Amino acid sequence: MVTYAQAELPARYAAQVAALEAQAWPGATAGHDPGLAPEVMLLLDDEGSVLVSLALLHKEIRHAGRTYRAAGLSAVVTRDTARGRGHGGRLVAAARAALAADPAVDLVLFSCDRPLVPFYEAAGFTRLPGTVLVGGTPERPLATDAPGFAKEVLADFPGADSGAEAFTGARIALYPGLVDRLW
């Protein structure tokens, strides 16, 4: 496993990540908003090829009268020929551990498709029932409860002195922008 700031990702890995993401999400743009301090975590095979990739995004959010240093997982993707072998779970668990050890992270919040909840729970994340993330911008919001979405919100609270109770069943103004509209 290796981690790079997005701007420092070697070209050979960047090309592989872009190909994996294009396969998983045809037509999507590769890369993340530099304002979210993106880091790319990779799980490599023995030959140095990317098996799994994900991005860690960061920003401050205001919620329940407080400011939190939030991080989120985005663009988790496994090479199609390597799926079903636990590689994705290993990288997601490693990402959770890295964020938990980061003193600059109070909480981790992200959304996923409902069928993926058990996958993220197995890596140690907690589902927040009834919680809605509002992404995009205040002028162009995108919420996880938008019509046609089947999203759930997951979290971890490594550095926050208030845990899940402040975030469960809440609408959380994430607003990561128009590049990473919803992480």
Total number of domains = 1
Say what the CATH topology is: Aminopeptidase
Rg computed from alpha carbons, rounded to a whole number of angstroms: 16 Å
How far from one another are the termini? 22 Å
Number of helices: 3
Average of per-residue pLDDT values: 94
Share of helical residues: 10-25%
In N-to-C order, the SSE pattern is EHEEEHEHEEEEE
Strand sequence of the main sheet, in spatial order? 1-2-3-4-5-9-6
The residue ranges in which pLDDT falls below 50 over 5 or more consecutive positions are none
Specify the CATH architecture. 3-Layer(aba) Sandwich
| CATH H level, superfamily name | Gcn5-related N-acetyltransferase (GNAT)
Q: Which geometry do the CA atoms define? A: globular
How many beta-strand runs? Answer: 10
What do these coordinates show?
One of its GO terms (molecular function) is acyltransferase activity, transferring groups other than amino-acyl groups. Keywords: Transferase. It comes from Streptomyces vinaceus. Residues 2-144 form the N-acetyltransferase domain. The protein has helices at residues 11-24, 87-101, 117-122, and strands at 2-5, 39-44, 50-63, 66-78, 107-113, 126-127, 132-136, 141-143, 151-156, 171-173. The protein is an alpha+beta fold. It has a single domain, classed as Aminopeptidase (3-Layer(aba) Sandwich). The strands form 2 sheets. The chain has a 7-stranded mixed beta sheet, sandwiched between helices. The protein is globular.
